[in-house]
Amino acid sequence: MSEYIPILNLPSKCRVYPNVEPGSITVRAYQGKDEVYLSQINSTNLERNYFELLKDLVHGVDPELLTLGDRLYLIIWECINSYTNTIPVQLICPECIEEIEVSVDLSALSVTHLPDDFQQPYEVTLPKTGKKLLLRLLNVKDDLAVERYSLKNDDGMLYRYARSVVTEDDILQVLEQVRQMHAKDFTAIRAFHEKFYHGPDMETLLPCPKCGEEITVDVPFRSNFFFPDGEALRKSFGA
């Protein structure tokens, strides 16, 4: 059985988990049984399938409460520790305009952490109306709800941000309020989530193998993070 080990560098610093101390959360690498879920992950069931895994992969915190930044960190951790730390990325070099392939070392990605003084709910003042609004970071439970909502509705983006509003109002009431917000006020909600982004920086600098210039490489979030197959499998494991 795989050993559960402490995760000491979560981007949230555990500041948003009541009564959870940094270092008390443990995680294990994937096992063969996990690949049943991993092999079935796609864009429509990502939240559900990965949540089923999180319930067994992570101990010490309710997996529904994991922030999205912490979950992304764990996804990358699992890729590194269960499969490989190196993934190939194809792109067009913006300097020499040639098609290239670079190898990205996931373990070298920088990680943004929440500030030491971060607390939620976090109060913002809406710039248009001057209204005070309490906000919180989104978590896995929110993403599960957004996935369900988006199956029947086309305004999942608004629903997502509405869920971050801390209020006693019903979520559908909050959603309607968000729909009617002036764009400046709605932007303040988006700015909160941008300001307190935490997690791996999915952008890195690498030299172009053809012209030698240092270029920015956006690391794509893709299914190979969960279940390497095809060319990615062959390049990583020689299979």
Describe it for me?
This protein is α+β, with helices and mostly antiparallel strands and about 240 residues long. It has two domains: about 5-110 and about 200-225, no CATH class; about 120-195, no CATH class. The protein is about 35% helix and about 20% strand. It contains eight helices and eleven strands. The protein has helices at about 35-40, 45-55, 70-85, 140-150, 155-165, 170-180, 185-195, 230-235, and strands at about 5, 25, 60, 85-90, 100-105, 110, 120-125, 130-135, 200, 205, 215-220. The strands form five sheets. Strands 1-2-3 form a three-stranded antiparallel β-sheet. Strand 7 and strand 8 form a beta hairpin. Helix 5 (about 155-165) packs across helix 6. The protein is globular, with a radius of gyration of 20 Å.
Which key terms come to mind for this protein?
239 residues, alpha+beta, 2 domains, 3-stranded antiparallel β-sheet, two-stranded antiparallel sheet
Low-confidence stretches: none
- Count of DSSP helices? 8
Overall form: globular
Q: How many β-strand stretches?
A: 11
Strand order of the largest sheet: 1-2-3
Estimate percent helicity.
25-40%
Task: Tell me the fraction of residues in β-strands, as a range.
Answer: 15-25%
Structural class: alpha+beta
Q: Give the ordered list of helices and strands.
A: EEHHEHEEEEEHHHHEEEH
Oligomer: single chain
Average pLDDT for all residues: 91
Distance between the termini: 25 Å
Characterize the main sheet: 3 strands, antiparallel
